[in-house]
């Protein structure tokens, strides 16, 4: 029987740390057999648990100068955690992925390659995870790919794929946009409206999934990334701009409006007690409006735009229709709005309310804030020091960069979305009818781009509905068929490591799988009926059994052509039936001669003699079965030259003569060559020839 569950392990190697994710889903072949109509029209159901996630610091990129240490000093902790939760029997079938993002993208190509090679080598050597191709399973993924995976994960959890009718945003649109911001980069991914999709078709990615019933799902998505626009990289750029503007030989303390009033740090963000004449110091002034003005130039809105329209830093992005494009934001979008400022729960993002909270917090004296958040080295204190800058950067990116309407200040037409009242109320509970909503989890599952990657992998294991509709699962340029740059899901319905363990052929289509599932019950019922008939036959009176047996035998003889040879299968069946259903006891075609057993000794079936023997049947028996076989000993005299033997009643009967059982000893080796003079084996008349499979 095949395995019920499939597992996947993926490591998100970010700039600040590496996070392990474990996902599980039902084997498609098992799922298809018992799925309802609604389930067959849905994508695979992935499951994860809180304890299946683990994050360690720092990031993989910190091992750039010592790649040999990344395995034992970094990965092994996560590997041990994964092995603890995945059944041992499933390890070798569990794909292992490590996909690095912005932190690794900042490294030179040679260091990226060295780290990836070392990681793959370590995992292959120290684990049994499924890792057939290093370039596919261990890689630095582009920001566009990261955004696309995030878009997949978001819409999967929100239900935009499986139940589009419940997420109708108007104009035939039912998916959500995705925004992500980490420490080093930011991403955007969304499906433009129909007009923009046609106008910018060459800028879109064609994404292909497959539902459980094998039908394809295709989406056209725009995705873009901004390297250096993550909060940590943006902060470094901001500090550099301050130094360029204010640093002079005589100015050792620079005002920083993006820090709480009275907070002192060095240029690396480390707090200092007081003015240090030996090092340049940043002094917080708590002026949030000024902070917004200082961070705005970092958006690069004045950068040349070669392909209109553009958003941040001259990056082309199709026009966003906020009537239908509703975005969710993860990572820093969530932490910056729900951390220090605590907007609470899943309430909709309100720009006016959020900005007021930020202003109130940042204008406070740092010592008052510090008394509430604990020691200066605690995580809460660190978050409080950075909160004002992060809030200003997020507000600028959202509203000045991407153009999200300022809810509470600007009137948006999104409230007129053409949707059913029930679906609208359901989305309002999660704030998803608004143009932007920061989220961390949906239905208890963390929104991570890693889920999108594993969804793609699991969908790739589903066979297509028909053999004529077998385009691969994955994504690439927006052209028909399979474009040259197509990124495959990493899995295939045509092959599986344990395909031999399953009753069904993995190369069958989904339609054939369902047909087999339906036929299994019919086959089981037929076998049950045959067993009942056999039992009823055995317990019938002997004379009635014999009449029925005779009738069947006559029918068989009539169906055989006159003079045609009797097939071995028919002979075996006849012997079997005669033993169990005839009036007489077991019959023997030949009776072993008295003393004949002395002519044979036990010999290994895989001996050297078997390899040199010309008796193919005897060789096949010995080699195929691995059992011992009877070996003739030719130097024993015939104890019964007359060919007579005694039957069970003590009467003398005529048997086959020795001459008929085999050639004369002197003729055994005529015309043959035997290895080392070993005797040639005879086919024993008492051991039926083994029939190979």
Kindly describe this structure:
The chain crosses the membrane at residues 522-539. Keywords: Hydrolase, Membrane, Transmembrane, Transmembrane helix. The structure is a single chain. The protein has 693 residues and is an alpha+beta fold. It has a domain at 598-677. Helices cover 36% and strands 15% of the residues. The chain has 22 helices and 22 strands. The chain has an eight-stranded mixed beta sheet with strand order 14-13-6-7-9-8-17-18. A hairpin with a 5-residue loop joins β8 and β9.
Which segments are poorly predicted (pLDDT under 50) over 5 or more consecutive residues? 411-431, 495-510, 512-521, 558-693
Query: What's the mean pLDDT score?
Result: 77
3D shape: elongated
- How much helix, percentage-wise, in residues? 25-40%
Main β-sheet description: 8 strands, mixed
Protein name: Golgi apyrase
Pfam families: GDA1_CD39 (PF01150)
Keywords: Hydrolase, Membrane, Transmembrane, Transmembrane helix
Organism: Phialemonium thermophilum
Secondary structure elements and pairings:
Blueprint: E1 5-13, E2 18-26, H1 28-34, H2 37-40, E3 53-56, H3 70-85, E4 96-100, H4 102-105, H5 109-126, H6 134-137, E5 138-140, H7 143-158, E6 177-181, E7 185-190, H8 194-199, E8 205-210, E9 216-227, H9 231-246, E10 253-256, E11 264-265, E12 281-284, H10 288-295, E13 327-331, H11 332-338, H12 351-362, H13 366-373, H14 379-402, H15 421-429, E14 436-438, E15 441-442, E16 445-446, H16 449-460, E17 474-477, E18 487-488, H17 510-538, H18 542-559, H19 568-581, E19 600-603, H20 608-612, H21 616-625, E20 629-632, E21 644-646, E22 652-654, H22 658-661
Parallel strand pairs: 1-4, 4-5, 6-13, 10-12, 13-14
Antiparallel strand pairs: 1-2, 2-3, 6-7, 7-9, 8-9, 8-17, 11-12, 15-16, 17-18, 19-20, 21-22
Helix pairs in contact: 1-17, 3-5, 7-16, 10-14, 11-14, 12-14
Family: Belongs to the GDA1/CD39 NTPase family.
InterPro entries: GDA1_CD39_NTPase
Protein name: Golgi apyrase
């Amino acid at each position: 029987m095949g395995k019920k569950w499939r597992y996947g392990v993926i490591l998100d190697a970010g700039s600040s740390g590496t996070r392990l994710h474990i996902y599980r889903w039902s084997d498609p072949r098992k799922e298809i057999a018992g799925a309802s109509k609604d389930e067959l029209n849905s994508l695979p159901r992935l499951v994860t648990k809180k304890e299946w996630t683990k994050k360690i610091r720092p990031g993989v990129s910190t091992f750039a100068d010592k790649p040999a240490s990344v395995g034992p000093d970094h990965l092994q902790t996560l590997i041990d955690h994964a092995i603890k939760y995945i059944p041992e029997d499933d390890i070798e079938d569990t794909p292992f992925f490590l996909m690095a993002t912005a932190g690794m993208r900042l490294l030179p190509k040679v260091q990226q390659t060295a780290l990836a090679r070392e990681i793959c080598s370590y995992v292959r050597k120290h684990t049994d995870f499924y890792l057939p191709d290093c370039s596919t399973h261990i890689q630095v993924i582009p920001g566009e790919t990261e955004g696309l995976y995030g878009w997949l994960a978001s819409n999967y959890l929100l239900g935009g794929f499986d139940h589009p009718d419940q997420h109708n945003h108007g104009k035939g649109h039912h998916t959500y946009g995705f925004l992500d911001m980490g420490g080093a980069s930011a991403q955007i991914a969304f499906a433009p409206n129909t007009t923009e999709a046609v106008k910018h078709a060459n800028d879109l990615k064609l994404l292909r999934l497959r539902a459980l019933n094998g039908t394809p799902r295709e989406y056209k998505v725009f995705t873009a990334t901004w390297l250096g626009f993550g909060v940590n990289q943006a902060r470094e750029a901001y500090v550099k701009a301050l130094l360029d503007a204010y640093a002079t030989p005589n100015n050792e303390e620079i005002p920083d409006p993006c820090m709480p009033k009275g907070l002192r740090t060095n240029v690396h963000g480390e707090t200092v007690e007081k003015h240090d004449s030996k090092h340049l110091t940043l002094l917080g002034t708590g002026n949030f409006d000024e902070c917004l003005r200082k961070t705005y130039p970092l958006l690069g809105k004045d950068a040349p735009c070669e392909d209109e329209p553009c958003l941040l830093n001259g990056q082309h992005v199709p026009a966003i229709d906020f009537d239908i494009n509703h975005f969710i934001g993860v990572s820093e979008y969530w932490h910056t709005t729900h951390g220090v400022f605590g907007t609470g729960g899943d309430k909709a993002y309100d720009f006016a309310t959020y900005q007021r909270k930020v202003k109130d917090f940042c204008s406070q004296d740092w010592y008052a804030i510090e008394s509430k958040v604990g020691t200066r080295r605690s995580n809460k204190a660190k978050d409080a020091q950075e909160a004002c800058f992060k809030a200003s950067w997020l507000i600028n990116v959202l509203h000045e960069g991407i153009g999200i309407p300022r809810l509470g200040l600007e009137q948006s037409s999104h409230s007129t979305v053409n949707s059913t009242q029930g679906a609208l109320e359901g989305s309002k509970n999660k704030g998803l009818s608004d143009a932007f909503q920061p989220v961390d989890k949906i239905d208890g599952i963390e929104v991570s781009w890693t889920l999108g990657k594993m969804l793609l992998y699991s969908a790739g294991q589903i066979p297509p509905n028909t053999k004529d509709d077998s385009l691969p699962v994955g994504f690439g340029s927006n052209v028909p068929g399979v474009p040259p740059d197509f990124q495959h899901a990493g899995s295939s319905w045509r092959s599986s490591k344990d395909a031999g363990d399953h009753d069904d052929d993995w190369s069958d289509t989904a339609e054939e799988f369902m047909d087999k599932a339906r036929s299994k019950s019919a086959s089981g019922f037929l076998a049950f009926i045959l067993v009942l008939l056999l039992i009823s036959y055995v317990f019938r009176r002997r004379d009635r059994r014999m009449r029925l047996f005779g009738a069947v035998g006559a029918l068989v003889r009539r169906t055989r052509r006159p003079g045609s040879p009797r097939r071995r299968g028919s002979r075996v069946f006849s012997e079997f039936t005669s033993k169990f259903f005839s009036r007489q006891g077991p019959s023997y075609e030949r009776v072993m001669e008295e003393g004949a057993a002395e002519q044979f000794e036990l010999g290994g079936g895989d001996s050297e003699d078997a390899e040199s023997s010309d008796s193919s049947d005897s060789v096949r028996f010995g080699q195929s079965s691995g059992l011992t076989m009877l070996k003739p000993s030719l130097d024993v005299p015939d104890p019964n030259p007359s060919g007579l033997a005694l039957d069970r009643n003590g009467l003398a009967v005529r048997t086959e003569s020795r001459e008929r059982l085999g050639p004369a000893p002197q003729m055994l080796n005529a015309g043959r060559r035997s290895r080392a003079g070993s005797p040639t084996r005879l086919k024993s008349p008492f051991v039926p020839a083994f029939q190979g499979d």
